[in-house]
């Protein structure tokens, strides 16, 4: 057991490589989230499913994703076997993810047209179950990885690096390599993209399992008592009675909805390919901003370790809000085609700076949320004596996914309103005033409003650095008391 004593308080600490290894569990599932951002093009272009129907299905599947969260979280808290509490769900989840992607993209379009829609929904629903199994562990296992308030934010460093490399590298790979190689979104492109994702996700899952293996043990489960006896109806009292959880859920989910819109593959096409006029620029911009984004993440984590995660969350939120508001004003006044890496001027430089600040600081809250959920779980353990990280983590995910499920539907209905009813805007479409307005709203205006709401909510969040130190001291005292009573 790795421990450290700070201010006479002994903490369970992880080795740095264990934190780095385990953070890849989130990357493993984010790989699938990334490749499925393009599933709209497959469903509409090859499976013959209408645009609005595809958007509605994706919204429904996100809701289904949320419904499965409490069920899996409940099972996680009930599990305690030879292979631990968390590792079985990581492995089983990743196997389901890989199998369903293979079936979805290789079978759906060759079925009779009358069966495609039902088959697509069924396989996607099974895929969601696997996704929930693995993602639930990312949040729940934070509690056993480390309980040191100064070490917990380090997860966000690794997670931020991995996700920046994933989403940046992935966008470059798709926009600058696959689109040029295949001409557009076609079956060969999907095969190449998905194969790479399946392999990498499997490798990352194995590494993550190794990273959590020494901590996936009973002595790290809450107050180290017997597995907590819970019932499914305990979810509502748990949510109602945990005010920090409610505030964190609300603040982060509105953020995630906004950034889900901005990162949606169709919105990226609308912004870079149509409004700016160069889709490959999306990959170039991502590469240019990768180092500044990582530096922002490092700064945020350093601030979180020094002043607490709440202050880092709020500071980043206000900076991102300012950047998005300025982007709205900028694109309302300029011609987007003036942004070009071949003729760099003040407009291009301003766009790069603002876009970097918006994406970099705007991504900090989502990066910090996993260790913050561990704080909320410890708050619950201290308050009620119950160790239920699975239920708490999946409560967050349940509401998060209900809200963010609106993203595909919002995009689908927004483009349908301006005439794109049978196909989504692609890299070959021409800019119109209506397309420009919808692009600015989806890419910049909605994130700005979401960040404002998020910041106002988190300003009243209870779990700052001082409060978490008090909670860990209280839990340690209760553990010590329980141990003495057992010996007596």
- Taken as a percent bin, the fraction of beta residues is under 5%
Largest sheet: 2 strands, antiparallel
What is the average of the pLDDT values? 84
CATH fold description? Growth Hormone, Chain: A
Dominant shape? globular
> Which CATH class is shown?
Mainly Alpha
Label the structural class: mainly alpha
CATH architecture grouping: Up-down Bundle
Run of helices and strands: EEHHHHHHHHHHHHHHHHHHHH
Name the CATH superfamily assignment.
Answer: MFS general substrate transporter like domains
Helical content class: over 70%
- Helix count from the secondary structure assignment: 20
- Ranges where pLDDT stays below 50 over 5 or more residues in a row are none
Number of strands: 2
* Count of domain modules: 1
CA radius of gyration:
23 Å
Give the key terms:
single chain; 488 residues; mainly alpha; Growth Hormone, Chain: A; two-stranded antiparallel sheet; 20 helices; 2 strands; 2% strand; globular
């Amino acid at each position: 057991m790795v421990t450290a004593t700070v201010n006479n308080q002994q903490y369970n600490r992880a080795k740095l490589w264990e934190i780095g290894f385990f953070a890849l569990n989130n990357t493993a599932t984010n790989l699938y989230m990334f490749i499925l951002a393009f599933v709209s093009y497959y469903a509409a272009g090859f499976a013959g499913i209408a645009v609005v129907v595809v958007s509605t299905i994706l919204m429904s599947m996100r809701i289904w994703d949320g419904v499965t969260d409490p069920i899996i979280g409940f099972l996680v808290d009930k599990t305690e076997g030879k292979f631990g509490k968390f590792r079985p769900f990581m492995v089983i989840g990743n196997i389901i993810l890989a199998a369903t992607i293979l079936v979805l993209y290789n079978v759906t379009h060759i079925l009779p047209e009358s069966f495609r829609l039902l088959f697509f929904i069924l396989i996607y629903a099974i895929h969601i179950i696997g996704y929930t199994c693995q993602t639930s562990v990312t949040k729940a296992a934070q509690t056993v990885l480390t309980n040191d308030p100064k070490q917990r934010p380090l997860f966000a460093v690794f997670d931020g690096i991995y996700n920046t490399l994933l989403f940046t590298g992935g966008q470059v790979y798709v926009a600058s390599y696959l689109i040029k190689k295949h001409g557009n979104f076609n079956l060969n492109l999907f095969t190449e993209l998905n194969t790479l994702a399946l392999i990498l996700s499997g490798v990352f899952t194995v590494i993550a399992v190794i990273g959590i293996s020494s901590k996936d043990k009973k002595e790290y489960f809450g107050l180290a008592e017997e597995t907590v006896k819970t019932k499914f109806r305990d979810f509502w009292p748990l949510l109602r009675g945990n005010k920090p959880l409610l505030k964190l859920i609300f603040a982060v989910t509105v953020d995630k909805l906004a950034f889900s819109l901005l990162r949606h593959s169709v919105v990226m096409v609308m912004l870079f390919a149509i409004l700016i006029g160069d889709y490959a620029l999306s990959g170039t911009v991502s590469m240019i901003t990768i180092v500044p984004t990582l530096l922002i993440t490092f700064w945020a984590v350093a601030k979180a370790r020094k002043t607490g995660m709440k202050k880092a969350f709020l500071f980043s939120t206000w900076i991102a809000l300012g950047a998005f508001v300025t982007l709205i004003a900028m694109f309302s006044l300029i011609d987007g085609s003036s942004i070009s890496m071949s003729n760099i001027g003040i407009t291009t430089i301003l766009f790069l700076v603002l876009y970097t600040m918006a994406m970099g600081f705007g991504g900090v809250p989502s990066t910090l949320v996993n260790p913050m959920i561990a704080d909320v779980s410890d708050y619950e353990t201290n308050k009620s004596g119950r160790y239920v990280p699975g239920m708490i983590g999946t409560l967050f995910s349940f509401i998060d996914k209900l809200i963010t499920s609106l993203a595909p539907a919002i995009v689908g209905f927004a483009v349908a309103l301006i005439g794109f009813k049978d196909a989504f805007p692609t890299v070959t479409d021409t800019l119109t005033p209506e397309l420009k307005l919808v692009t600015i709203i989806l890419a910049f205006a909605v994130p700005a409003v979401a960040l404002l709401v998020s910041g106002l909510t988190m300003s009243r969040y209870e779990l700052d650095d001082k409060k978490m130190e008090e909670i860990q001291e209280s839990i340690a005292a209760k553990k010590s008391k329980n141990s003495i009573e057992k010996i007596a």
